[in-house]
Amino acid sequence: MLALSALGGLFSGVVLGGMESELSVIPGLLVLVPALLATRGNVYGSLGARLATGLHQGLVDPDVSLADDRVRAAVTAAMANGVAVSAVAAVLGYGVLFALGRPAAPLPALLVVALVAGVLSGIGLTVVVVVAVFWGFRNGMNPDTLAGPVVTTTGDVIGIATMLAGARLVIALGVV
Amino acid sequence: MPDEWSIEGIVRATFPLLVGLTLVELGSGLVLDTGKEVLTTYPSLLTLVPVTIGMAGNLGSVLASRLSTAFHLGTLDFAADDDELAGNALATVALAVTLFPAVGVGAWAVQFALGGLVLPLGTVVLVAAASGVALAVLAVAVATAATYAAYQFGLDPDDVVIPVVTNVCDVLGVVVLLLAVRAFV
């Protein structure tokens, strides 16, 4: 399991390695990388754990459906948390860099990257987590042991790839 | 009791912790930013960043989870000659010694295939292996200290130790990786 997670980590590393030009054009972006990646793991790992608990308690119907009020609330809350914390990370990161007198891209640029990455990775990870947890449960697996590794392995890859998408968008829009 | 399955209830329960953890991670981002020149010059080092951060957190949380279980089972006492503690600590270091050089080879091979190669294989493997071993030792120290502190304060180690250890190890992962880069590149 650790080796698989290392492989996922290497893959996201490749994407990060290919981002060197974006990292140079948008100073301060590198500061956000650990915070945004950890947020993915924390938010969507907890979504997986919550859905798993709901399935175990019989509160959530094992048919995959967003019509279920509890599933919808859990997913919406995770998306809201993920996007809001990404924005907080951008603002705080910019503030700290500014206070230290270190080079930083304009706040709107960092904010757009964080928000684009937050929304896109939120959609991607919600799909991955919901499918893995429900599929696992219906096939007799314990969704609790499934959700954690699935999120750690895919979270970094999706997190970095969506940050790259956000960075490309910011550069294309001419914000930096 | 607030509704655990309402949007507001979930956000209220988790948002403050998320902001706190973000502050810790921004610390690790700032450290990473100080090494930006060398990292962007050699993409194979940049490739090591997510995997080192991730594995450091993994090593710490696996050990913390084992120590928490041993603690609940009553088989753990915090003495230097405690078999349970020594065995788990040794297993964590052994895991790092096997896993990290492989990660270094992987990072080098991928950049070689992409044509982004600047650093020799030996250097990348050395950086990965050295950071891995140092991180394993630190993860053992952090996980043991956090489990012990939870025990002293009467907290359930399962609730507090894992998030603390995972995020502290994330920060240490970046610091150690940059120190290894400074030492060997």
Q: What does this entry look like structurally?
A:
The complex is a heterodimer of chains A (176) and B (185). The radius of gyration of chain A is 17 Å and the shape is elongated. Helices cover 83% and strands 0% of the residues of chain A. With 176 residues, chain A is mainly α. Chain B has a single domain, classed as Orthogonal Bundle (Tetracycline Repressor, domain 2), CATH 1.10.357. Chain B contains 6 helices and no strands. Chain B is globular. The model of chain B has no long low-confidence stretch (mean pLDDT 83). At the A-B interface, helix 1, helix 2, helix 3, helix 4 and helix 6 of A face helix 1, helix 2, helix 3, helix 4 and helix 6 of B.
What is this structure, in a nutshell?
The complex is a heterodimer of chains A (about 180) and B (about 180). Chain A has about 180 residues and is mainly alpha-helical. Chain A has 6 helices and no strands.
Give the tags:
heterodimer, A: 176 residues, 6 helices, elongated, B: 185 residues, mainly alpha, Tetracycline Repressor, domain 2, 85% helix
Largest interface (CB < 8 Å): A-B, 56 and 52 residues
How large, in whole angstroms, is the Cα Rg of chain A? 17 Å
Number of DSSP helices of chain B?
A: 6
- Derived structural class of chain A: mainly alpha
Largest sheet of chain B: none
CATH superfamily of chain B: SLC41 divalent cation transporters, integral membrane domain
* Mean pLDDT score of chain A: 89
Which residues of chain B form runs of ≥5 with pLDDT under 50?
none
Rg of chain B, alpha carbons: 19 Å
Look at the structure and give the CATH class of chain B: Mainly Alpha
Largest sheet of chain A: none
Q: What is the N-to-C succession of helices and strands of chain B?
A: HHHHHH
Q: How large a portion of the residues of chain B is in β-strands, by DSSP E? A: under 5%
Shape of chain B: globular
Strand content of chain A: under 5%
Present the secondary structure layout:
The complex is a heterodimer of chains A (176) and B (185).
Chain A: H1 2-17, H2 20-25, H3 29-57, H4 69-100, H5 107-138, H6 143-173
Helix pairs in contact in A: 1-6, 3-4, 3-5, 3-6, 4-5, 5-6
Chain B: H1 7-34, H2 36-41, H3 43-73, H4 83-114, H5 121-152, H6 157-184
